[in-house]
Give the backbone structure.
Amino acid sequence: MEPFDIAKLASYRENNRIEAKSAKGGLPRSIWETYSAFANTYGGVILLGVKEREDGTFETVGLTPVEAEHLRQDFWNTVSNRSKVSAVLPIESEVEVLEADGGMVVAIHVPRAPREERPVYINGDLFAGTYRRRGEGDYRCTRQEISAMLRDQGFETMDSKVLDDLTVADFNMDTVRAYRNRFRTVRQGSSWTGLDDERFLRAIGAAAVSREDGRLHPTFGGLLMFGNDYDIVRECPQFFLDYQETLDPAIRWTDRVHSGDGMWSGNLFDFFFRVNRKLAESLKTPFKLDGIFRVDDTPMHKAVREALANCLFNADYHGVRGVVVRRTPDKLVFENPGDIRTGIEQMRLGGVSDPRNGLVMKMFSLIDVGERAGTGVPDVFATWANAGLPEPRIEENFGEADRTILTLMLEADAKPDNNEQITDDYEQINSSNEQISDNNEQLNGSNEQITERQRIVLRFVEKSPRATYDDMARAVGVSSATVRRDAEILIGRGLLKRVGSRKAGQWEVQRGEES
């Protein structure tokens, strides 16, 4: 979350990252609904001692230093009570008593809770005390939203469940054979290639011995990968895979592939390879030879495969609306149910892999599909930057249907649809718009501010001071030349400094606009 600047109080507005409360009569009861809402959404700042004018701007209410300190102590005493709040998220430095024109202000910075602690709820009531933030207001979560957060709490990924009422004979054996053929090609010499089907499926994680009856049964990941959709839907009623192609505006779909039509298995393996072939047709393939053979697998083809695989790895298949992949003449869109477990910023930076479906990821990685080190999305950004295409856009929607959406524009002059702009952790904190822009939003709206990409550069080198330009480029998802220009701008503005020699030196972030 970007730092709150008390000097700019008058320029802020309430939105989904900032809430003002007068608190003149003491700690307001509604603060805990907002605390829960911020913790379960994007995080945010609660301002005590501030009220909203009719025009939406803020003004202080005249808290004295004694009143402000009492509010601060009252907050800490209450938030530490587990019967009131299920999780203590802020640290001491994130609850500040600040001096402003006209009175004191208590600024409480509430971070987004880690998935292990969500949902954050109040009054000891999980179902009546769990809130999220939408626009300027807090709303009580539905049981469906709470269930989705609970599913994400576990350390084991949700596809590791053993399904005792099914056997490996329920798998689609055509899919199993196709997978084994690819495995044999990719993993030449592997001792697993000689195993019978049951042992092989156990080795890759598609089946496991049940603790209930001691017999071999499919895992949920194995069912997703190799099952038939009628069995998958019985285990997971909301499961749905959908590829929609609209190349002619006069025709609703010029091509469509979806599960449940009885024409194919409806599992993840077959969906991936059917859809990947269709997506590849949208990419321009330059003429390139490897010896006498034409090379058709470009970095963009690999990036699209990664985007599709990432969509399948991270989908919450118990969530509504299912996986949707859309192709139009100017863009590719990958949608999956479920929010981003690591958060948008970490997803862009890479290096942390936290898939919802770890077994599915493992099985695909064994046939060289998908990046297990958490660098897949940064590689997509880097590939699009090197191709001179608009920066990919990651969106995260919360509500009845949590959704993660990745959009890849296919034309250099394409403009993203304004009504599709959604949110991430870099929201412009003083904007009254409910949405948070993923690209180049500024904290105070000034044209003199650095871009969001440059902010990411600063965060990255602060954690990795000996990073090279290539390291920075991979982390940010742009070319080395672009990140070098960003570094020069940051150095020129006094925000970044290079200490020592070019080879043995390191970066130092200077405390100015960025913190």
Notes: The chain is about 30% helix and 15% strand. The longest helix spans residues 65-79.
